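Priority: medium. Attachment 1 of 2:
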């Protein structure tokens, strides 16, 4: 699994390496050498400017400068702060750099072939201001390619937020594992291409750290992925129910239903107002439309316990009628709540927590607007320091798995496990895409996949389907595109 380490966890990995016999200066030497390797891969990087900061990030910069000079590059080094104030490994690395150490102010950064940004990394402790901020802004304005050491300076590795200023990097070289800030926007864009260098920290450090945040990739959930059993029948693959709005808003439920079917649910029933029956009947022939006028009708339909997974929200309308449908569906069933279902609980996350408590597992899939409405007034959730922290706080509050959508969709479980997606193309932001995602999650839940894993898999499959469909995508393409993604996944998982 691809773990993500926050700065504290990374410091723990560092200590673990030292405890198990790796000298900390060796880590710095390898880190600086990895940066030098990245510079050397650039086209014609003959003139290199290395901007070093006052801590170990600057130390990596001094090592990179030395290695590059030894390899014949013309290197100039500037230090933000005084050389006399460097300590520990950074002081040692600076002492091994034999060339001049200049004032940043005297350098014309626009003349650099490549700039190495080694000002601040994991130790960024507050917003940049004064000389540090001015230097980062000059670097950004230089227009020269930048290779960032660990993180673009000013980017917070835990949150992905910019603290004061940060310069767009062409490439970022980080160490051992990526950090959440490499995936969370705007950090992801600022990093450019991210390389992870092995600097000799033992993998066993992860068993000690027990990280709880991961990149959302198949290795995170593939062991729980429901491959169809050779001797199975459709009921083994679950019976999902999509609750639809009336004829004018039935498209959203329709997209969710297709998502659930293509994700592998054995059967999908669409519970819809009678006026919407013909529309659903005319879509996929495989869908089973049933007339459901209100919550009492839904309860009757769901009396068949095989209908164990229900998605509500897409195109349903927000308000009391939707809350009543949710109350009818919740007891003992696995639920996905999206869109209007979430807006129906504006400012009342405790009510969703109550639904979660009655259910057999709940996934909620808000976008940022729905999230803000649901948690209105809940400062602990809304003001948590990052998208990752907000999603985790929300999951704890609701006792449910939360999927907070966007270019960097975060999935979090109440127990703290979290995954950040990196496979969604920008053109996935199109009307109805969210409805398909809710449907895919429902289809996976219906097949018995555990709730957190189902949510993570749904997000990854959704992104992969979009990539497979390509630019020009409309939401209707996503369920169809899932076929190619499944073909590859089944092949890989031996299904
Ligand atoms: N962990 C590992 O395994 C390995 C880590 N390695 C490397 O170490 C890096 C982390 O080093 P680090 O901890 O020394 O922190 P770093 O990023 O240099 O910054 C600290 C300095 O900046 C200062 N400062 C902070 N904020 C500021 C602000 N807003 N404005 C102005 N100043 C500010 C702060 O000063 P102070 O807060 O004390 O005033 C302090 O002097 C990591 O990113 C990686 O590159 C590798 O060598 C390989 C192994
Ligand atoms: N900039 C982006 N890059 C990639 N994916 C995005 C971006 N913005 C939104 N998405 C994704 O597009 C989908 C949009 O869903 P949603 O906002 O619910 O729209 P709708 O209600 O129209 O279906 C979500 O899966 C979200 O993660
Ligand atoms: K940096």
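Attachment 2 of 2:
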């Amino acid at each position: 699994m691809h773990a993500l380490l926050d700065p504290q966890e990374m410091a723990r990995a560092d200590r673990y390496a030292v405890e198990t016999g790796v000298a900390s200066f060796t880590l710095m030497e390898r880190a600086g050498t990895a940066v030098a390797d990245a510079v050397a891969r650039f086209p014609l990087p003959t003139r290199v400017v290395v901007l070093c900061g006052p801590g170990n990030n600057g130390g990596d910069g001094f090592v990179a400068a030395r290695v590059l000079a030894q390899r014949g590059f013309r290197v100039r080094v500037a230090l933000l702060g005084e050389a006399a104030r460097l300590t520990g490994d950074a002081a040692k690395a600076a002492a091994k750099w034999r060339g001049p150490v200049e004032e940043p102010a005297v350098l014309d950064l626009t003349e650099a072939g490549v700039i190495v940004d080694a000002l601040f990394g994991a130790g960024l402790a507050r917003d940049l201001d004064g000389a540090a901020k001015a230097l980062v802004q000059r670097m950004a304005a230089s227009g020269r390619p930048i290779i960032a050491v660990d993180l673009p300076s000013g980017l917070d590795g835990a949150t992905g937020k910019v603290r004061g200023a940060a310069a767009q990097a062409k490439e970022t070289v980080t160490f051992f594992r990526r950090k959440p800030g490499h995936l969370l926007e705007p950090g992801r864009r600022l990093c450019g291409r991210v390389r992870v260098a092995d600097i000799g920290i033992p993998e066993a450090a992860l068993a000690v750290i027990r990280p709880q945040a991961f990149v959302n990739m198949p290795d995170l959930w593939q062991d729980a992925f429901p491959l169809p059993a050779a001797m199975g029948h459709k009921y083994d693959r679950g019976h999902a129910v999509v609750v639809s709005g009336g004829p004018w808003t039935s498209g959203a439920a329709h997209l969710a239903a297709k998502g659930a079917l293509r994700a592998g649910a054995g059967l999908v029933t669409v519970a819809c107002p009678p006026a919407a029956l013909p529309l659903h009947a005319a879509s996929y022939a495989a869908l089973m439309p049933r007339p459901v006028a209100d919550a009492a009708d839904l309860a009757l339909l769901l009396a068949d316990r095989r209908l164990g997974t229900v998605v509500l929200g897409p195109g349903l309308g927000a308000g009391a009628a939707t809350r009543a449908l949710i109350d009818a569906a919740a007891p003992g069933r696995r639920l996905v709540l999206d869109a209007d279902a979430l807006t129906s609980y504006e400012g009342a996350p405790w009510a969703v927590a109550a639904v979660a408590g009655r259910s057999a597992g709940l996934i909620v899939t808000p976008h940022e607007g729905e999230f803000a409405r649901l948690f209105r007034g809940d400062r602990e959730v809304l003001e948590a320091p990052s998208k990752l922290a907000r999603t985790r706080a929300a999951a704890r509050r609701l006792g449910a798995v939360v999927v907070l959508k966007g270019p960097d969709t975060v999935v979090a479980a109440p127990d703290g496990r979290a995954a950040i997606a990196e496979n969604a193309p920008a053109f996935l932001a199109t009307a109805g895409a969210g409805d398909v995602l809710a449907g895919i999650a429902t289809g996976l839940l219906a097949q018995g996949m555990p709730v957190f894993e189902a949510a993570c898999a749904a997000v990854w499959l959704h992104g992969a389907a979009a990539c497979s469909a390509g630019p020009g995508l409309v939401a209707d393409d996503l369920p169809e595109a899932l076929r190619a993604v499944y073909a590859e996944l089944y092949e890989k998982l031996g299904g």
